[in-house]
Amino acid sequence: MFQRQYRTILYGLCGAIVAALALYGAYTLGSLSETLHDEEHMKELERENARLRHGEEDAAVDRRVSEQMAEIARDQRLISDAQRDSAEKQRRLADELREEAQRESRAAREAEARANSARREAEAASVEARRERTKALQQEQAALRSKRETDTLRYRDLARLLGSRSLLARENGNDSLARKLAYTAWYFLKNYGNNIYQPEVFQALGYDDRMEAASPHHSAIYDVDKSVDGKSCIVCSGYGEVLRWKGGKVETIFFDKRYDLRSMVQEQNAVWVLSHDGHLLHISATGKQQQTEDHILPEGEYFHLQDLPEGRLLAGARHQVVIFDIKTRSVISVRPFPEKRLLTTMPTKKEVFFFYDNGTIGCTPYSTKRNSEVPSPVKEPITAAHYDEISDLAYVGCASGRIYVLKKGGVIFSRLLGHSSSITDFTFMPELHLMLSTGRDKELHIWDVDRIRAGKPVESTRHKMDSWPLSLAPFGSRVVCGLVNGKLIMWEFAVDKLAQATRNRISSGLNENEWNTFVGAKVDYVKLK
Q1: Where are the beta strands (DSSP E) in 50-134?
Q2: What is the bridge-based pairing of β-strands 279-286 and 320-325?
Q3: HSE of 207, CA atoms in CB hemisphere, 13 A
Q4: Within the chain, how many helices (H) and strands (E) appear?
Q5: Alpha-carbon distance 151 to 189, whole Å?
Q6: pLDDT score recorded for residue 513
Q7: 8-state DSSP, 431
Q8: 3-state DSSP helix/strand/coil percent for the chain, to nearest 5?
Q9: CA–CA gap between residue 358 and residue 375 (Å, rounded)
Q10: Fewer CB within 10 Å: N-end or C-end of the chain?
Q11: Alpha-carbon distance 416 to 441, whole Å?
C-alpha cells in the first residue's frame, strides 16, 4: 500500500515538474516569438522603404520615358501630318491625272468612233462598189452568155446546114467539097460546145468511115457481138449463118439454112448458138478443123441465150426458160410459164430478171436459183433491158418507146424520152460516155451517160435507119448494128477521130469564096487547113 502511495506521489511530482517545464517553455517561446515578430516587422519596414525608394526611381524613369515618348509622338505626328499633306497632294495630282486620262480616253473613244464610222462608211462603199462591180460582171457575163447562146444556136443551125449540104454534095458526087463542108460543120459544133452528135454533122463526118457488109445477109441479123480477142465481130442470122466480120470483110464460121439462129454466147475458140426451134449448137474450131455439137432443148420458140455463173447457159423461149449445164452438156432445169410470154431477160451481179408480156417481172438469185415475182416499177411491158455495173443502174425499154432508168430496188431514177416504138436493144460505150438504144421506130438514139448518172435532163440525138435495128454491139469506139433486113453496119462514134480522118482527106479547107457562099460573109473567115 505504501508503495502504491509512493508511486502516486512520485507521479504527481513528475507531473508538476513537467507542467513547470511546459510553462517555462511556453513563456520562453512566447518571448522568442515576440522577439522574432519584432525583427520580421523591422525587415518588412526596410523592404517597404526600399520599395518606395525604387518606386520613386521607377517613377522618375517613367516620367523621363513618358517625356521621350511624348516627344517621339510629337515627331510622329509632325511626320504623319507631313505624309498626310503629301498624300493629299498625291491624291489631288492623281485626280488631275485621272481626269486628264478620262479626257484623253473620251477623246480616243470619240476618235475611234469617228474612225469606226469612217471605216463602216468605207466598207459600205467598198461593198457597194463590189456589188456594183459584181453586178457589172454578171451583166457582162449574162451578155456574153446571151451572145454565146445566140452564137451557139446560130452556129449549131449553121453546122447542121453545112452537114446537110455536105450530104447533098455527096449525092452530086463532089466528095472533096462534101468533106470540106463536113469538117467546117464539126468546127462550129466543137468550138461552141454544142452536141457534136447532131445527125446531119455526124452522118456527114462518118460518110467515109461508115462500113457496111458488101451484101446483105439472107435474113435478119438477130445477134452481134465483139469477138473474144476484140479484133472482129461475130454475127448470127435467121438464115443459119454465123459470120465473122472484120474490116468490111466477112468470113463464114458456120452455115446451115435449116437453123433459124437467134442468139449466141462466145467462148475461147468456140461459140454457142441458139436456134428458134431449140437447137443449141456448140461450134468450135481447132486449127482448120471445125466441130459442131447439136443439143436439142425442150420444144419451144427460143429467142435468147445468156451465160450464167457456174458454167451454165440460160435459153429463153416465149413460154419457158431452160438452164443448160455446159460441163455435163445437159438440161438441168425447165421452168414453164404457159400463161405469159417472155420478152427479154437482164442478168445483174446477183440475180437474173425475166420480163413478161403481161407486165410482170420474175427474179432468180444465182445463190438460191428459186424464182420469185417482183413488183414492176412501170405499168407497161418491158421489151429490152440492160444493167450498168458502173453506176448500178438498170435501163429498161418499153413497148411504148419509153426508157426508164431504175435504181436498186426498182425505184425510178429518171425517164428517157425519144423513141416512138418498142425498144429492141441497148449498148454502152464507156470510153465515149455514151449509151445507145434502138427501137422499132427504125431509129438509133445516142444518150449522154454522164448526165443520166448525175440525174440531169438529157436529150438524145437520133439517127434514122432504113430498117428495124435488132442488135447492137460496141467495138472500141465503133458500134456494130444488125438490121432486120439483113444489113450489118458499123459506125465510128469518136467524132473527133472522124473529124481528124476527114481533115486528113482534104488538101485544104474552104477558101474565102466557098466560105462566103456556104458559111456567109458575115461570119469571119477561118482558114481551117
Answers
A1: none
A2: unpaired
A3: 24
A4: 6, 28
A5: 11
A6: 92
A7: G
A8: 40, 30, 25
A9: 12
A10: N
A11: 15
Rounded CA-CA distance 105/320 in Å is 98
Task: State the Cα–Cα distance between residues 414 and 391, nearest whole angstrom.
Answer: 13
Give residues with Cβ within 8 angstroms of 157, minimum separation 6.
none
Burial of 210 (0-12, 13-18, 19+ CB in 10 A): middle
Model confidence pLDDT, tens digit, residues 63-92: 777 778 888 878 788 888 888 888 888 888
What is the distance between the alpha carbons of residues 495 and 79, in angstroms, rounded to a whole number? 109
Amino acid symbol at 518: F
Are 265 and 305 contacting, i.e. CB atoms less than 8 angstroms apart?
A: yes
Q: What is the spatial distance between Cα 246 and Cα 351, in angstroms, rounded to a whole number? A: 34
Q: In what order do the strands lie in the sheet with 312-317?
A: 302-308, 312-317, 320-325, 330-336
Residues whose CB falls within 8 Å of the CB of residue 398, separated by 6 or more in sequence, listed in order: 378, 380, 381, 382, 383, 404, 422, 423
**CA-to-CA distance for 366 and 518, rounded, in angstroms?**
60
| Residue carrying C-alpha cell 451578155 | 143
Bridge partners, residue 372, by sequence: 363
- Mark residue 435 as left, alpha or beta (left: phi above 0; alpha: psi -120 to 50; beta: remaining): beta
Query: Quick one: which of 331, 319, 404 has its CA closest to 362?
Result: 319
CB-based contacts of 127, cutoff 8 Å, min separation 6: none
Which H or E run contains 81? helix 2-171
Residue closest to 452 by CA, chosen among 480, 488, 416, 492:
416
393 pLDDT band (50/70/90 cuts)? very high
Question: How far is 323 from 313, CA to CA, in rounded Å?
Answer: 6
State the number of CA atoms in the 13 A half-sphere of 367 facing the CB.
2
Q: Which residues pair with 173 in a beta bridge?
A: none
Beta strands in 318-448, from DSSP E residues, in sequence order: 320-325, 330-336, 342-347, 351-356, 361-365, 372-374, 382-388, 393-398, 403-406, 412-416, 423-429, 434-439, 443-448
Q: Which residue type does 16 have?
A: A
Distance between first and last Cα of the chain: 195
Is 476 or 248 the better-scoring residue by pLDDT? 476
Residue 377, classed as helix, strand or coil, is coil
Element spanning 130, H or E? helix 2-171
Name residue 345's amino acid: T
213, 214, 215, 258: which is closest to 239 by C-alpha? 258
Side-chain-side CA neighbours of residue 319 (13 Å): 9
Residue 317: Cβ within 10 Å count? 24
Q: Which residues lie below 8 Å from residue 235, measured CB to CB, with a gap of 6+?
A: 217, 221, 223, 224, 225, 241, 242, 243, 245, 480, 482, 488
Q: Are 313 and 306 in contact (CB under 8 A)?
A: yes
Q: Which helix (H) or strand (E) holds 464?
A: strand 461-464
* pTM of the shown model: 0.66
Whether 310 and 288 have beta carbons less than 8 Å apart is answered as no
